[in-house]
Write a structure and sequence with these properties.
single chain, 416 residues, mainly alpha, Ammonium transporter fold, 17 helices
């Protein structure tokens, strides 16, 4: 069997898996730099915890439930414990290489939620939340959207690399958790700017680099569609970063590093669902729209009063939703020579837009309700939030017995 494997395509999927794996440490740096200095290690650990737990659950049975079987709503356990795979295959669901590639997607998805709960969630609660959320929320939504027999996919909704199942799903879940968790002490009166913009920019660069594996790797082949997804990923993220920067300059009078970084990530999020369905200039338009929309969306939390610490809702939920819905306008099957529904601007009418609305609406309702229930159950049992004293002292010292920075030595150095 190994001799019949398409080694060129397999090599690209292997590289892509490594790129997507690298995204989670990149997200950790991105979020860690935005967090308070006394909680940066906690944020890094929340992200790395996903890399420890999720891949193991994935191979034990979560992958099989998310992609195996022939039902419309959930898979079975035919591929549980790493069995039943064809080593020569690069197809869902029986390819072991695709299975491990998709494990990296599964790992980063709950990690996205960590940015919303920064500075105040018990690590023990997070440790339990991640596997529960993976199995009860991520797995079924992924099956609906991506499995060959998933009901949303068979209806005709499109999601190339995870706009609905990853970003909309995690973004609305983040909102559900923080509504149970509550606001940080002093928020919004006490500002909490990023403690390290260099870490934020480093994390942005790693995410941008890794995202090529996320999107172009989802072709599962080194082919023309993968090339177009690569191009779309680059141009949409650049356009979104530029759009955010321009909006920020006009509105506030400054170009900021945080704005550019947030814009780039918003563009990456928005192009993810459509990168294999839209052509070059459509990707630029999607990026520009997402950058502008998300630059305003991050302020919604102040108007509505929910404390989304690191703007997961404004960037990932809104960006993913915008990108997914815009497929209904920009999808162009002729541009790829493939047979999928065309968007409104390419002669397809409103049918695809309706399917995108349905898929995202179902995901939003399901993910919010189940995540809210998980958070409530954890809060009622082991407790979801640290005490006010721990929040004041910092989670790094109390939860992990570590500090990112030796403030005592720095102060002594200044005194000397």
């Amino acid at each position: 069997m190994l001799g019949t494997l398409d080694t060129g395509n397999a090599a690209w999927v292997l590289v892509s898996a490594a790129l997507v794996l690298f995204m989670t440490p990149g997200l950790a740096f991105f979020y860690g730099g935005m967090a308070r200095g006394k909680n940066v290690l906690n944020m890094l650990m929340m992200n790395f915890w996903c890399l420890l737990v999720v891949p193991l659950l994935w191979v034990l049975g979560a992958y099989s439930l998310a992609f195996g079987g022939s039902g419309s709503f959930i898979g079975n356990l035919e591929y549980a414990f790493g069995r039943g795979f064809d080593a020569a295959s690069l197809a869902v669901p029986n390819s072991p290489l695709v299975m491990i590639f998709l494990a990296t997607f599964a790992a980063i998805t709950p990690a996205l939620i960590s940015g919303a709960v920064a500075d105040r969630m018990k690590f023990a609660a997070w440790a339990v939340f991640v596997p529960l959320w993976l199995l009860l929320v991520y797995v079924p939504v992924t099956y609906w959207v991506f499995a060959p027999n998933g009901w949303l996919l068979t209806r005709g909704s499109l999601d190339y690399a995870g706009g609905t199942s990853i970003h909309v799903n995690a973004g609305i879940a983040a909102l559900a958790v923080i509504l149970v968790l509550g606001k940080r002490k002093g928020w919004p009166g006490e500002g909490a700017p990023p403690h390290s913009m260099p870490l934020v920019m480093l994390g942005t660069g790693i995410l941008w680099f890794g995202w090529f594996g996320f999107n172009a790797g989802s072709a599962l082949a080194a082919d023309g569609r993968g090339v177009q997804a690569f191009i779309n990923t680059f141009l949409a993220s650049a356009a979104a970063g530029l759009a955010w920067a321009i909006v920020e300059k006009v509105r506030d009078g400054h170009f900021t590093n945080l704005g550019v970084a947030s814009g780039v990530v918003a563009g990456l999020v928005a192009i993810t669902p459509g990168c294999g369905f839209v052509t070059t200039m459509s990707a630029v338009a999607i990026g520009m729209i997402a950058g502008a929309v998300c630059s305003f969306a991050v302020s919604i939390k102040f108007k509505l009063g929910f404390d989304d610490a690191l703007d997961v809702v404004g960037v990932h939920f809104v960006g993913g939703l915008v990108g997914s819905l815009l497929i209904g306008f920009f999808a162009d099957p002729k541009g790829f020579g493939l047979d999928f529904k065309a968007g409104l601007f390419f002669g397809g009418g409103v049918g695809l837009l309706g399917e995108q609305l349905l898929a995202n609406g179902v995901t939003i309702v399901f993910s919010f309700i189940v995540t809210f229930a998980i958070a409530k159950a954890l809060d009622a049992t082991i407790g979801l939030r640290v005490s006010p004293e721990v929040e004041s002292e910092g989670l790094d010292v109390v939860e992990h017995a570590e500090t990112a920075y030796n403030y005592g030595e720095r102060a002594m150095g200044r005194a000397l």
